[in-house]
Backbone:
């Protein structure tokens, strides 16, 4: 009988411990959110990201829907990607990658800065001089011509990109670059971008008006 009583008592004690632990984790503020830590932001203020996350201080960390928080943070226009994780005992960590502008689209006398996907990151009165102007008929995400032009910009080495004044793409297979010194580069389609960029760097050492790298195996200089 004593053995049965002892077993029952231990089972009750174990259930009580589990219940207290569950209460601490899921209902109590003891393991609640004390800090929303923002990592990876440069242009977007951390406070803006915390406000978008919308997690109240003291909320049990275990009950925070990290997918929902991520979705709210992703609604910030300048955020390209976000990851949300729990840092016990009381920290919610939000890691973001911000959109980086790579080109400028003129809009009503102002300049819309767009990232590699064609998403507008911000609108400025004066465009940064290091970004090329994007010349396409439909400068928006998903447009094939815009995507081809932005891919060409992305393929350029760091030292060459600031020398480009504008990128034109009347079609996805007819991309061209105009350098700030007036020289023209015929880029062509989106095939073999790394080869085109590498060859172009070498060709630009030769004086000419036009450099055609649309077919990297047979380049021409005029």
Residues:
């Amino acid at each position: 009988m004593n053995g049965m009583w002892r077993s029952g008592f231990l089972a009750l004690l174990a259930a009580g411990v589990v219940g207290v632990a569950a209460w601490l984790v899921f209902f109590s503020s003891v393991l609640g959110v004390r800090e929303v830590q923002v990592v990876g932001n440069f242009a977007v203020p951390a406070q803006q990201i915390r406000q978008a996350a919308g997690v109240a201080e003291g909320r049990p960390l275990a009950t925070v829907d990290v997918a929902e928080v991520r979705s709210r943070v992703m609604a910030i226009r300048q955020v390209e990607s976000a990851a949300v994780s729990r840092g016990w005992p009381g920290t919610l960590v939000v890691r973001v990658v911000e959109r980086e502008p790579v080109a400028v689209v003129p809009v009503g006398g102002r300049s819309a800065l767009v990232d590699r996907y064609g998403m507008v990151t911000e609108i400025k009165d004066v465009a940064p001089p290091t970004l090329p102007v994007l010349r396409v008929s439909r400068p928006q995400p998903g447009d094939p011509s815009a995507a081809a032009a932005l891919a060409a910009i992305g393929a350029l080495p760091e030292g060459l990109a600031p020398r480009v004044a504008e990128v034109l793409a009347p079609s996805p297979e007819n991309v061209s670059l105009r350098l700030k010194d007036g020289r023209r580069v015929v880029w062509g389609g989106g095939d073999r971008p790394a080869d085109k960029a590498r060859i172009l760097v070498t060709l630009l050492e030769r004086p000419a008006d036009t450099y055609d790298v649309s077919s990297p195996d047979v380049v021409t200089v005029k």
DSSP finds five helices and twelve strands in the chain. Residues 31-98 form a domain with the Ubiquitin-like (UB roll) fold (CATH 3.10.20.310). The two ends are 103 Å apart (CA to CA).
